[in-house]
Amino acid sequence: xxxxxxxxxxxxxFRIRDKYGPVKHLDTKTFLVGPTVGxxxxxxxxxxxxxxxxxxAVSEEMTSAGEREVFFELNGQLRSVFIRDDNASKVYSTKT
Length: 96
Fold this sequence. Notes:
The structure is a single chain. It is flat and about 40 Å long. It is built from four helices and four strands, in the order αααββββα. It has helices spanning about 1-5, 5-20, 30-35, 85-95; strands spanning about 40-45, 50-60, 65-75, 75-85. A hairpin with a 2-residue loop joins strand 3 and strand 4. A four-stranded antiparallel beta sheet has the order 1-2-3-4, with no helix packed on it. Helices cover about 35% and strands about 35% of the residues.
């Protein structure tokens, strides 16, 4: 029904779900825009299991693949992942 009423929204949701796995546990703001540095989000993955995720920093430097390293705490443990920065490529392309 969602795909019939809102085809682009449904397509975006399915594409993100296929790429990142189930995202149904994220609140709307986190799903649509992502967390900002300093934000702490609580993700309840099932009854009695909650992930506390705090965004700590985003690297200034970008890899050749257009990714930035994002540092965060997951239940108090320091972690990092490389995330594609689509906005950076837009800024870069408008400057050239």
